[in-house]
Every structure is written in C-alpha cells, then in structure tokens.
Design goal:
- With about 220 residues, the chain is of the alpha+beta class.
- The protein has a single domain, classed as Imidazole glycerol phosphate dehydratase, domain 1 (Ribosomal Protein S5, domain 2).
- The protein has four helices and ten strands, in the order βββαβαβββββαβα.
- It has a four-stranded mixed β-sheet, with helices on one face. The protein has a four-stranded mixed β-sheet with strand order 5-6-10-7, covered by helices on one side. A two-stranded antiparallel sheet has the order 8-9.
- About 40% of the residues are buried.
C-alpha cells in the first residue's frame, strides 16, 4: 500500500428496526353484519387479513362472481348469504349487500390508525379500462362515470353496479370515484370496475409501516 493512504474497510450494512416507525399491533380486522328487512335477509362476514377466500350466494350468479373477484383480488375473506325478492328484480338484494359490506368495512378498519387510507388502481380488461380511486375519509361520496346502462348480464342489470357501490361507499363512509376510461363489452367493463375496486381497497386498508396514528393532520377520521 502506498505511503499515506488509509485502507478502506468494507462493512456489511444492517438495518435495525426503528420502534418509533413500526406499525401498530392490531387485532384481526374483520366484522360480521346481519340485516333483515321485509325485502331481504343478508349476512356478510369480512376479514381484511384474509387470503382471498369467498363463499357467496345471493341468487344472482353474475353478482356472486363479482363479489368473488373482490375477495380474490383484494385478498379479503368474504362470506355473503343473501335471500330476497328476486321476483321483482335484483335491486333490493344488490343494494342491501352493499349496505352490509359497507358497514362491515367501516367496523373492520375501526379508528383507521396505521392504514394508508388512500388507494387507487387502473385495471384493463381487454378493450375496457377502468380507474377507481378511494379515500377512507369518513365522508361518504360516490361518483361513477361511463359505466354501461340498460344492459343485462345473466339477469343482472348493469345499472345495479352503481347502486351497489353507492350503498357500500355511503355505509363505509368513504369517498369513491369510478371512471370507465375505455368501455366496450358490458361484462368486461363491470368486471374491471370490481377488480379495480378490490385492488384500490387493498391499498387503502393496508398498514403503512411508517405510520403510527390516524392518517390525517386533524388526528381523526
């Protein structure tokens, strides 16, 4: 080694956990909601820490499939048991499932400490392209633009997509924007909406490893 030069020592870098930024310890985040009216009987069980398992029976096959997509792509465990006056159409059943799922979500996230709060996703489904953005703000608001109307898929009226998500957003007390950026086949478009919702919700309810409190400068949501 040349005179006057200091040898360079390479050291393995290690990262020590910082207790001040570790996520809060949380109990299992889930809820069960039951609702009975003269029109429907609905029971919903939601586990935010699930693995994508679902058990869904509403009497509307296409709607069942969409709820299974929410579970699978959001990695939530979801059970939905619904019976109602399907002879008059699916409106009451779809809306009441949305109400129950929204209430279950609100209960499952609790005081919202440590969550990301916001989530968004753009999902393609062949020719369809859909954007969903969420804020678990405590302020219910729902906007849906460009979705199919007046079409029926296996007896499921496409207008019920808006009814479902409006009921869910209002009862979860969250802001939700869903925009169909490129439409096409009604099945593809609606499926993209549910998948984008699932992915955005997964982001919003996930625990932020750097957060220790409520994700708001006001200190409460």
């Amino acid at each position: 080694m040349a005179e006057g030069l200091v040898p360079i020592r390479f050291m393995e870098e290690t990262v020590q956990p910082d207790s001040s930024t570790r996520p809060l310890d949380t109990a299992p985040r889930g809820a069960t909601i039951e609702r009975k009216t003269r029109e429907t009987t609905v029971r919903v069980k939601l586990d935010l820490e699930g693995s994508g398992q679902s058990k869904v029976k509403t009497g509307l096959g296409f709607f069942d499939h969409m709820l299974e997509l929410v579970a699978g792509h959001g990695l939530f465990d979801i059970t939905v048991e619904a019976s109602g006056d399907l002879q008059t159409g699916g409106h009451h059943t779809v809306e009441d499932v949305g109400i129950c799922l929204g209430l279950a979500l609100a209960e499952a996230v609790g005081d919202k400490k440590g969550i990301y709060r916001y989530g968004n996703m753009v999902v393609p489904m062949d020719e369809a392209l859909v954007l969903v953005a969420l804020d678990l703000s405590g302020r219910p608001y729902f906007a849906y633009e460009g979705g199919p109307v007046g079409e029926s898929i296996a007896g499921f009226d496409s207008s019920l997509v808006a009814e479902f998500f409006r009921a869910l957003a209002n009862n979860a007390r969250m802001t939700m924007h869903a925009r169909v950026l490129s439409g096409g086949d009604a099945h593809h478009t609606i499926e993209a909406v549910f998948k984008a919702f699932a992915k955005a919700l997964r982001q919003a309810v996930s625990l932020d490893p750097r957060a220790t409190g409520v994700p708001s400068t006001k200190g409460v949501l």
